[in-house]
Design brief:
Length: 231
């Protein structure tokens, strides 16, 4: 992570914005939220500025990089996801907690194309975003272990298997967005049955290692042409 990214994530304004500057910032955020939800992380920043009624230079004064704008938009969603994870990890019925957390994650993916891109790791994160991402991973691991301890989740599932749920849902959500926007739910519940202890069979291949997952994420980050422009 570059020093510029770390600094831009932690810097705070010395004083409140002027009323006109705050109005411009709010307009940019509103326009970006709509554009990114529809077009993904590669949405045109020029188009966002035009929709907000500001010059592109004004957009960059408020958000020096695409990443600054992305994290402003999605901090609230990550906060919502973390709250759902905390609740799921504390549930007495660990299987219900496991299913509820993954369903909440997929719901957030399904209603926003850019968040779908973000949770599939197509863009690197600033310090604050990375901390939220790592906390979500920790809670997911705890949720998984809780269900295994209660005997409802098959014992050979590892935290490295969970990204497969996210990656598979990415494709399904994108493919069915206009024809059957709820199709991801059927696929997710089919996967839940595959995760259950009852009826589990020995798997022919080992799980990915943490290193292999990280390598896969590296190939996903900005692999698509519409995710390459970070500034």
């Amino acid at each position: 992570m570059s020093q510029h990214h770390a600094l831009s994530a932690t810097a705070t304004p010395a004083k409140p914005l002027r009323r006109d500057a705050q109005r411009n910032r709010d307009a940019i955020v509103a326009a970006a939220r709509t554009a990114f939800a529809e077009q993904g992380l590669g949405a045109s920043l020029e188009g966002v500025a035009r929709e907000a009624g500001v010059a592109i230079g004004t957009l960059y004064r408020h958000f020096p990089t695409r990443l600054d704008l992305v994290e402003t938009l999605f901090t609230a969603k990550y906060t919502e996801l973390l709250a759902a994870a905390e609740e799921a990890a504390a549930m007495d019925d660990a299987w219900e907690g496991f299913c509820r957390y993954l369903e909440k994650l997929c719901e957030l993916q399904a209603c926003d194309r850019a968040f779908n891109d973000l949770v599939s790791a197509r863009l690197p994160l600033h310090v604050a975003g990375r901390e939220m991402y790592e906390r979500a991973k920790e809670l997911c691991t705890q949720i998984l272990h809780n269900a295994q301890e209660q005997g409802t989740l098959r014992a050979d599932v590892t935290p490295q298997d969970i990204p497969f749920v996210i990656w598979s849902q990415v494709g399904i959500i994108q493919a069915t967005r206009t024809t059957a926007p709820q199709a991801w739910r059927r696929h997710l519940h089919l996967m839940f049955d595959a995760f259950r202890t009852e009826g589990a069979h020995t798997l022919s291949d080992p799980p990915l290692t943490s290193e292999q997952v990280d390598q896969t994420l590296t190939t996903l980050q900005c692999a698509d042409e519409d995710c390459r422009e970070l500034s």
